[in-house]
Structures are given as C-alpha cells and as structure tokens.
Amino acid sequence: MDEVRIGNAIRFSGQPAADFLIRIETDGLSVRTPCVPTPTLAAFVQGLADDFRGWPGERAWRDGTLAVTAVHRSPGRVELTWTVEDGHYDDLEWSVTAHTTHDAGEAMLSLARDLRAFFAR
Questions:
Q1: Is pTM, for the whole model, over 0.90?
Q2: 3-class secondary-structure state, position 21
Q3: Domains identified in the chain, total number
Q4: Is the pLDDT of residue 53 over 70?
C-alpha cells in the first residue's frame, strides 16, 4: 500500500526506505510535509474503533508535526481533527487543520487497518 486516503482531505504517501508524507487539502489550500512513520497513530485509531459506543470529551494523539483529536458524536459518528504544524522556516510558524467524519464502527476499524499496513512497510 503506497497511500492511505482519509476522506477527501488527508493523504499519507511514501515508499519504503523513504520519507513518508502527509498531505492535507482543505478550503483550496494544499500542504504536503514529511511525517514520522509511526504505528502509534494506528493504535490510537484502533482504540477509537474499539470504543465505538462513545466516550466523553476529546481524545488526542500527537507525534512530531502531526496532531489528531477525536470527538464521538451521536449517533455513531467520530469527528477527527487533523493538524499539521511546522516551524522550520526561521521565524515563520504555520499550521493547517482539516476535519473528517467517520462511522464509529467498521469505518474506524478499516482506517486503523489501513494505517497499520501503511506504516508497517
């Protein structure tokens, strides 16, 4: 698997032994930046899928320049907020945020499987 798409806004891509990239496209803006290949994102999403009946408040995950927050919305929907931040350009700091919404059950399980397979390469 060379790519994982999450809704229309988020895409992970890359080749084994090369940099992985995350691309966020939202409101006419497209940002592509390197990301750390990490199985902890798949584990975070798997935990959300396991708790498909819901949870109170917000859950969060962060690794390097990528942060993901999750809120369970009734009935049976999970809203993910994806934020990429980068401050590698002298005094310039930027961030881009996109939102995706998923069914709490099988859609989240499928997303966790896809992320696990992608980052395991």
A1: no
A2: strand
A3: 1
A4: yes
Residue 109 Cα distances to 2, 8, 43, 60, 119, angstroms:
19, 18, 10, 18, 16
Q: Is residue 60 within 8 Å of 68, Cβ to Cβ?
A: yes
Q: If we measure between CA atoms, which residue out of 86, 107, 110, 111 comes closest to residue 97?
A: 86
| DSSP one-letter code for 54 | -
Q: Using CA atoms, how far apart are residues 81 and 7, in angstroms rounded to an integer?
A: 12
Give the start-end residues of each E strand in the chain. 3-6, 10-13, 20-26, 29-35, 58-63, 66-73, 77-89, 92-103
CATH number at residue 88: 2.30.31
* Three-state DSSP class for residue 53: coil
Q: Write the pLDDT tens digit of every residue in 39-51.
A: 789 999 999 999 9
Residue, of 24 and 17, whose pLDDT is higher: 24
Domain assignment of residue 34, given as a range: 3-119
**What SS3 class is residue 45?**
helix
43: Cβ contacts below 8 Å, ≥ 6 apart = 112
